[in-house]
Amino acid sequence: MHYGLDIGGTKIELAIFDSKLELVTSWRMPTPKDDYQELLSAITQMVADADKKTNQKGTVGIGFPGFLDNQGRSVSANISCVNGQTIVGDTCEQLGRAVAFENDVKAFVLSEVRGGAAQGKNNALGVVVGTGFAGGLCIDGQLYKSRQNVSCEFGHVSLPAVLQQRYQFPLRQCGCGLLGCVEEYLAGPGLLWMCSHFETDYTSVPILVEAMRANEPKALEVMDVYIDCLGCYFAQLTLMYDPDIIVLGGGLSNITEIYTRLGQAMQKYFFGGVIAPPIVAAMYGDSSGVRGAAIRGRDNAYNTAVLN
């Protein structure tokens, strides 16, 4: 059996998958994000419970909102207790087996390439647009790995000047410490901020979307601007990575109008001869990240066994 864990800022989910990566069962518990030892204990207990359910020691892969620096220490803006910790070694010691760690967004992309919406694509870019804005790149079925493990952190690239000037956006302070990051405008909280910027009364993204579908002028204006900004930035991502397909995840990926409008919005930001790639929804939805973590755990256990 293969276990995938998705550690978020509020909850930890563990899912058990069989040899065909079919979901067997899953459950959640709150994330003890302020105490590192409590977090390790929670992971250990969940895996022990999974071993009891399956009557075996399953492979383990863990997705979390952060990355491992080049010293092997974890860095996360959402779960502060893991910062500076050797979480891979500590978890392996606690569980008595090999454990694979992966950025949660990259785990999502891996899942969609391995039997998901991007199956069979040589070059697939995944973008999660939710409370944050980040992604991952798979080439020939494998996650692209970079020197410092920060590839595809494109939510922390500066907003294009053409958008800032066109819509008179202020340069917003990002939680990462930088100024004017794309995430502050294109993630879910950024879309809600646009409602305020354009002097509307919409207090949530669902209310905005409902108003747009009712053809309320202010809602249409905000969504037109958002789609234009998204199109501009996705065009830049296409020029950087030239993917065969872009798979969307995260809460805003449930807005169906994005899929019908985004390709056309991208097109005006290309020079001649460039065409937008297909943009599709994730096949496994909210479960894609935990499934990708399980895949990483399975692959890691296999590679460890081969080396030994």
How would you describe this protein?
The protein has 308 residues and is α/β, with parallel strands linked by helices. The chain has 2 domains: 2-102, ATPase, nucleotide binding domain (Nucleotidyltransferase, domain 5), CATH 3.30.420.40; 117-282, 2-Layer Sandwich (Nucleotidyltransferase, domain 5), CATH 3.30.420. Helix content is 40%, strand content 19%. A 5-stranded mixed β-sheet has the order 3-2-1-4-7. Strand 2 (11-17) and strand 3 (23-30) form a beta hairpin. Helix 3 packs across helix 10 and helix 7 (205-213) crosses helix 8 (217-241). The longest helix has 25 residues, at 217-241. The chain is globular. The mean pLDDT is 93.
Give keywords.
five-stranded mixed sheet; Nucleotidyltransferase, domain 5; alpha/beta; 308 residues; 10 helices; globular; 2 domains; 40% helix
| Mean pLDDT across every amino acid position | 93
**What is the rounded distance between the termini?**
21 Å
Low-confidence stretches: none
Strand order of the largest sheet: 3-2-1-4-7
What is the number of strand segments? 12
Structural class label = alpha/beta
What is the CATH domain class of the largest domain?
A: Alpha Beta
Q: Share of helix among residues?
A: 25-40%
Biggest beta-sheet profile: 5 strands, mixed
Binned strand content: 15-25%
Q: Compute the gyration radius: what is it? A: 20 Å
CATH architecture title of the largest domain: 2-Layer Sandwich
How many discrete structural domains?
2
At the third CATH level, what is the topology name of the largest domain?
Answer: Nucleotidyltransferase, domain 5
| Helix count, DSSP H or I runs of 4 or more residues | 10
CATH superfamily of the largest domain: ATPase, nucleotide binding domain
Catalytic activity: N-acetyl-D-glucosamine + ATP = N-acetyl-D-glucosamine 6-phosphate + ADP + H(+)
GO molecular function, one term: metal ion binding
EC number: 2.7.1.59
Keywords: ATP-binding, Carbohydrate metabolism, Kinase, Metal-binding, Nucleotide-binding, Transferase, Zinc
